[in-house]
Amino acid sequence: MNPSQAMTVTVENEFATIEEATAILLEKMPGSKVARLLATLQVGAGDYVKTRDQLFAGETVDTLLDQAKAAEQAQTARPCTMKITEDVREYAAEQAISEKDALNKGMEEKSKEFVERGADVYATACDKPWLAALAARG
Does pTM top 0.85 for this prediction? Predict the structure, then answer.
């Protein structure tokens, strides 16, 4: 091959590629998800401090903690609210009443049951199987 016809290829440093990809991901995803992805891919090379600063720009420990709590609460609450909705619909069908009336009637019945059981705010695992399951999960 003639030297004047030689093809030139520029190969970028892998760290530059990782930085570019991280910047693109940060435009579309929250920093916490990008961090999880990078950890999953085990991208441990490069400047950790710079990457951390990019991922969590403008965040404080308090804001990150609030986000983690909100995510955990949303994840925990979702199955409970779905179960409650399902129970209300079943109860309304059994009683042949509207869901709104079922809510009111159910609240009255649960209020009476609460008082009859001694108005104890704390339920034991024996009273609630789902509570025992949660306690077992740690």
Answer: no
